[in-house]
């Protein structure tokens, strides 16, 4: 795939900073670099000091550094030049304006460098997505998952399955295309045996409780409970800012408030909700409905009760799932030596006011996040796009189990291979042809 145009764009975020990086990619990148510096390109992959000048007027714009990556040894696989400038707005603006004056150069579209890298076979689609996730990663666990995907772990997993299926398919294709050749009579059985482990690996990969997708999106945690239990106080304490209004009046919170947290490296979307109670106030009633809706969609529900009224508040624990939901008894500072209530269910005693028990709570939520998101061993499925394609592959393989006719079996395998190929963006027929002739040495 050859691109005619040369693209350029800042690779760093706008604003005042130590450095700003501008990247150029395409056939004219080297020419542009020579025009900007008034000198030959430096040796490949060496960062050297150069003055950066306006190519038309010769005016000096910045004293920077440049690097030169001839094709194909670059991120995009094309000729690439990089300019390391002083990170001021005016410097960047002047250099971008100078580049705009050069013919055949155009400002890159979002993602265009990566798109070129994909088209030139430098990255497969899962690696492209891993790169996007890495740049977007806000927590340590997200970073780990993204770098693993960028380094090709997911692509290799899917590629391996695709390869096994392609090998099986190649044997079948040969039987179909050359029916006069001597082929093993039990071909269908042996192909099915080859396909079965792939089918079960895909099924297992799909049945992962959406951990990879959850890790990208964050664990959704809803704080719920009766009015005045201290939900908003807890929300503020965990998010370490006064995001929610706290007051001694019941029914203070109406809207669902949300904050993204990093709990021990795991992303959590924490929601504060209206106190659950029957009310004639229309606005508060809408708040309660929203709270209930959020409770339904949450991965984890944290119920907050008031230590002095915990007994009477027990009915507010909407169909509590004991193995999953957390119950907090808040305001234990008010008990002043009196024993904790015996509620007949496990709970965490806390005082948001004094901070008692909050560490244990964070620990507990982080533990649940880890259980929900960590993928032990094999890399995790991270996107709905992958899931849809894998489900398609699994369905085709499911059908193939019962196929008795080589043509139908081959068609199912072909569909499965194509579905897997869509995930990595590499569906090659060449591959299949090559295998057919390689494995059978048919000599025709
Ligand atoms: N003594 C004591 N008071 C607390 C504690 N946590 C919260 N409060 C007080 O309890 C009252 C209600 O707190 P909020 O955080 O507004 O309670 P809420 O559950 O969000 O209330 P609604 O939004 O109205 O449902 C406020 O006066 C808080 O200062 C605590 O640990 N100890
Ligand atoms: K309140
Ligand atoms: Mg509140």
From TrEMBL:
Its cofactor is K(+). GO terms for biological process: tRNA methylation; tRNA wobble uridine modification. Mg(2+) binds at residues 232, 253. Residues 218-370 form the TrmE-type G domain. Binds 1 potassium ion per subunit. PROSITE patterns: G_TRME (PS51709). The keyword DNA-binding does not apply. (6S)-5-formyl-5,6,7,8-tetrahydrofolate binds at residues 23, 82, 122, 444. It holds the Pfam family TrmE_N. Its main location: cytoplasm. GTP binds at residues 228-233, 247-253, 272-275. It comes from the Bacteria. Keywords: Cytoplasm, GTP-binding, Hydrolase, Magnesium, Metal-binding, Nucleotide-binding, Potassium, tRNA processing. SUPFAM superfamilies: P-loop containing nucleoside triphosphate hydrolases (SSF52540), TrmE connector domain (SSF116878). It is an enzyme of class 3 (hydrolase). It is found in: Cytoplasm. Its EC number is 3.6.-.-. GO terms for molecular function: GTP binding; GTPase activity; metal ion binding. One of its GO terms (cellular component) is cytoplasm. Belongs to the TRAFAC class TrmE-Era-EngA-EngB-Septin-like GTPase superfamily. TrmE GTPase family. Exhibits a very high intrinsic GTPase hydrolysis rate. Involved in the addition of a carboxymethylaminomethyl (cmnm) group at the wobble position (U34) of certain tRNAs, forming tRNA-cmnm(5)s(2)U34. Homodimer. Heterotetramer of two MnmE and two MnmG subunits. HAMAP family: GTPase_MnmE. NCBIfam families: mnmE_trmE_thdF (TIGR00450), PRK05291.1-3 (NF003661), small_GTP (TIGR00231). This is tRNA modification GTPase MnmE. It comes from Hypericibacter adhaerens.
């Amino acid at each position: 795939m050859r691109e005619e145009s040369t693209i350029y764009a800042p690779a760093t975020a706008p604003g005042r900073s130590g450095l700003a990086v501008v990247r150029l990619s395409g056939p004219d990148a080297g020419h542009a670099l020579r025009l900007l510096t008034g000198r030959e390109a430096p040796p490949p992959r060496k960062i050297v000091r150069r003055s950066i000048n306006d190519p038309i007027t010769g005016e000096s714009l910045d004293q920077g550094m440049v690097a030169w990556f001839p094709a194909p040894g670059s991120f995009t696989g094309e000729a690439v030049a990089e300019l390391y400038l002083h990170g001021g707005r005016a410097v960047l603006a002047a250099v971008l304006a100078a580049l705009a004056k050069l013919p055949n150069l155009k400002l890159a579209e979002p993602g265009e460098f990566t798109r070129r890298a994909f088209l030139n076979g430098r990255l497969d689609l899962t690696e492209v997505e891993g790169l996007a996730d890495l740049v977007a990663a806000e927590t340590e666990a997200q970073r780990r998952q993204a770098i693993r995907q960028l380094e090709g772990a997911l692509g290799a997993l899917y590629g391996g399955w695709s390869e096994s299926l392609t090998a099986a398919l190649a044997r079948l294709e040969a039987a179909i295309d050359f029916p006069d050749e001597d082929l093993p009579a039990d071909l269908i059985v042996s192909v099915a045996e080859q396909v079965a482990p792939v089918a079960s690996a895909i099924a297992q990969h799909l049945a992962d409780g959406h951990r990879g997708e959850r890790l990208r999106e964050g664990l959704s945690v809803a704080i719920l409970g009766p009015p005045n239990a201290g939900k908003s106080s807890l929300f503020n304490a965990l998010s370490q800012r006064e995001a929610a209004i706290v007051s001694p009046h019941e029914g203070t919170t109406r809207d669902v408030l949300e904050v993204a947290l990093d709990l021990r490296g795991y992303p959590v979307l924490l929601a504060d909700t209206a106190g659950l109670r029957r009310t004639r106030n229309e606005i508060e009633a809408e708040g309660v409905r929203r709270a209930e809706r959020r409770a339904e969609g949450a991965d984890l529900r944290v119920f907050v009760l008031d230590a002095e009224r915990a007994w009477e508040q027990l009915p507010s624990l909407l169909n509590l799932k004991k193995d999953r939901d957390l119950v907090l008894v808040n305001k234990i500072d008010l008990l002043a030596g009196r024993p904790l209530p015996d509620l007949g269910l496990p709970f965490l005693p806390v005082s948001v006011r004094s901070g008692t028990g909050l560490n244990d709570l964070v620990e507990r939520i982080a533990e649940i996040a880890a259980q929900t998101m960590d993928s032990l061993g094999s890399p995790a499925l991270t996107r709905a796009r992958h899931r849809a394609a894998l489900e398609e592959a699994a369905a085709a393989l499911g059908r193939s189990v019962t196929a008795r006719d080589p043509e139908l079996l081959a068609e199912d395998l072909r569909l499965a291979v194509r579905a897997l190929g869509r995930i990595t963006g590499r569906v090659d027929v060449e591959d299949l042809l090559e295998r057919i002739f390689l494995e059978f040495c048919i000599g025709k």
